[in-house]
Amino acid sequence: MKILILDIETAPLLGHVWYPWGDNVNPNQLVHDSFMLTWAAKWYGESEILTDQITPAEAKKQDDKRIAKSLGKLIEEADALVAHNLDKFDLPKINTRILFHGLEPLPPVTQIDTLKLAKKAFKVTYNRLDYLGEFLGVGEKLSVDFQLWRDAYMGSQDAIDEMRAYNAQDVVLLERVFLRLLPYVRSMQRLVDPVEEEDHACPTCGGRRLVRRGYYRTKVSNFVRYQCKECKRYSRARRSERAKLSVTPL
């Protein structure tokens, strides 16, 4: 299974407002919609960081068609996507830009949202990627402020380059956080395709060093439960063992 870990950086909306707080921006107040400034991605388990960014000329035209197309081509190769807030931000935003430019629609892929994983399985004080990275001791985001987004929007080459580096670091951090969450979350999709010839392998990392840890029991069957010595994640056998019949006295 090919798993793509990704993150995008987008330009802010540009519009006219009456008040700095609580002003509802109507469509006729909007000067220009948001667009992508950069994207960064890596294949799960590989070291190379893949990136693309708009040029200064494209930024001044708010034209992200070229990088939306390059990202779409990359996603076409993936079986699954991993991102932080993937379901509510990254994927809808990518789809929006692809729709706007009339590009080929993305194929259906498995979606793994690390924000949802963190919220569902834990009670960390904050679920932002940078806080999770610091909390888990696996790294942090690069330190930037809003001026970077403003300068990139205006077409500064230095700002766009810095945005690309910031974006790439987010992907590195995202994978580290994802790997730390994996052993603890439940109902995770299979990340490794099963090999029919093999008896059992870890569905997360493909490891063969499995330790038997009791049973996973359903109403009708028992499945041997394993823990992977490599990634620490639990899994169960694909085939059940018939439960022994027992009689409970009345």
Features:
single chain, 250 residues, alpha+beta, Nucleotidyltransferase, domain 5, 2 domains, five-stranded mixed beta sheet, 10 strands
Describe this structure in words.
It is elongated, with a radius of gyration of 22 Å. The chain has helices at 56-60, 65-75, 86-101, 114-121, 129-136, 146-153, 157-181; strands at residues 3-10, 14-15, 30-32, 36-43, 50-53, 80-83, 110-113, 210-217, 222-228, 234-236. 32% of the residues lie in helices and 20% in strands. It folds into 2 domains: 3-181, Ribonuclease H-like superfamily/Ribonuclease H (Nucleotidyltransferase, domain 5); 195-250, no CATH class. Helix 6 crosses helix 7 (157-181). The protein is built from 7 helices and 10 strands. It has a 5-stranded mixed sheet, sandwiched between helices. Strands 8-9-10 form a 3-stranded antiparallel sheet, with no helix packed on it. Mean pLDDT is 89; it is low at 243-250. The longest helix has 25 residues, at 157-181. It is of the alpha+beta class.
The rounded distance between the terminal residues' Cα atoms is 52 Å
User: In which range does the helix fraction lie?
Assistant: 25-40%
Largest sheet: 5 strands, mixed
Strand arrangement in the largest pleated sheet? 5-4-1-6-7
| Class based on secondary structure composition and strand pairing | alpha+beta
Q: Going by CATH, what is the homologous superfamily of the largest domain? A: Ribonuclease H-like superfamily/Ribonuclease H
- Counting DSSP H or I runs of 4 or more residues, the number of helices is 7
Mean pLDDT: 89
Q: What is the CATH T-level topology of the largest domain? A: Nucleotidyltransferase, domain 5
Q: Assign the CATH architecture of the largest domain.
A: 2-Layer Sandwich
Low confidence ranges: 243-250
- The number of distinct β-strands equals 10
CATH class of the largest domain: Alpha Beta
CA radius of gyration: 22 Å
